[in-house]
Amino acid sequence: MANNLHAPTVSSGPTSGGIPRDLSKLSMGDLMKHKENIEEELSALSSVLTSHGVDMSTSLTTFDGFPRDDIDVAQIRTIRAQIIRLRYDHKEVMGSIEKGIHTHFAGLQRASDEAPVATTANISTSQPSGTSTPASGVSASTPFAKVNSVVSGSPADQAGLQTGDKIRSFGSVNWLNHERLSKVAEVVQRNEGRTIIVKITRNEAASSNTIDRDLELVPRRDWGGRGLLGCHLLPL
């Protein structure tokens, strides 16, 4: 009977291959791929913990100090150790990505300072599809979430968010650092009652064009509904 108590096991070793010894030698594309591999493995390992009915902090012993016999304690300990290591690897990779982005945009800024000053009088915050933008290679404007629903009269509705809008940035959060939208939740909690700039891309109903817009969103509790925003986001 004991053999039927445990969920299917996973391989004992990680599939991401571990963090490379010298991240500075990796291209931005390789860093992003490594980041995605780590996140996929973290998700898979977390799912195994969930299948056992435990998480990273659940006690693995009985009230009198003996190992629980209703779960695979050895496997759970192994998975937890892998998750801890992968979280550290993820932090290291994200640090290298952020350093690369800062270096890249510092170069763009230097180039901009050396170039002739262009007038901005006629620049609009909305750009039709196909409008050229400065090539960045590691642009942080790639959409990372989609608005799945918006409640009428909510802060999201008042800001102008619409169902189907794709989020390019949410305050300081973008496709490079949103961590499966967890960082969006943190920004919302930290900025209750304060304005957050949300950059979105929207498909125009009357044409096949898309437009980019900057919206001002103020999270608040007193709007008459649940949550601080009144909308639901899905990761892309």
UniProtKB/TrEMBL annotation:
<dbReference type="InterPro" id="IPR040815">
    <property type="entry name" value="Nas2_N"/>
</dbReference>
<feature type="domain" description="PDZ">
    <location>
        <begin position="99"/>
        <end position="204"/>
    </location>
</feature>
<comment type="similarity">
    <text>Belongs to the proteasome subunit p27 family.</text>
</comment>
<protein>
    <recommendedName>
        <fullName>Probable 26S proteasome regulatory subunit p27</fullName>
    </recommendedName>
</protein>
<dbReference type="GO" id="GO:0070682">
    <property type="term" value="P:proteasome regulatory particle assembly"/>
</dbReference>
<dbReference type="GO" id="GO:0005737">
    <property type="term" value="C:cytoplasm"/>
</dbReference>
<dbReference type="InterPro" id="IPR035269">
    <property type="entry name" value="PSMD9"/>
</dbReference>
<dbReference type="GO" id="GO:0000502">
    <property type="term" value="C:proteasome complex"/>
</dbReference>
<keyword id="KW-0143">Chaperone</keyword>
<dbReference type="GO" id="GO:0005634">
    <property type="term" value="C:nucleus"/>
</dbReference>
<dbReference type="Pfam" id="PF18265">
    <property type="entry name" value="Nas2_N"/>
</dbReference>
<dbReference type="Pfam" id="PF17820">
    <property type="entry name" value="PDZ_6"/>
</dbReference>
<feature type="region of interest" description="Disordered">
    <location>
        <begin position="116"/>
        <end position="138"/>
    </location>
</feature>
<feature type="region of interest" description="Disordered">
    <location>
        <begin position="1"/>
        <end position="25"/>
    </location>
</feature>
<keyword id="KW-0647">Proteasome</keyword>
<dbReference type="InterPro" id="IPR041489">
    <property type="entry name" value="PDZ_6"/>
</dbReference>
<dbReference type="InterPro" id="IPR001478">
    <property type="entry name" value="PDZ"/>
</dbReference>
<feature type="compositionally biased region" description="Polar residues">
    <location>
        <begin position="119"/>
        <end position="138"/>
    </location>
</feature>
<dbReference type="InterPro" id="IPR036034">
    <property type="entry name" value="PDZ_sf"/>
</dbReference>
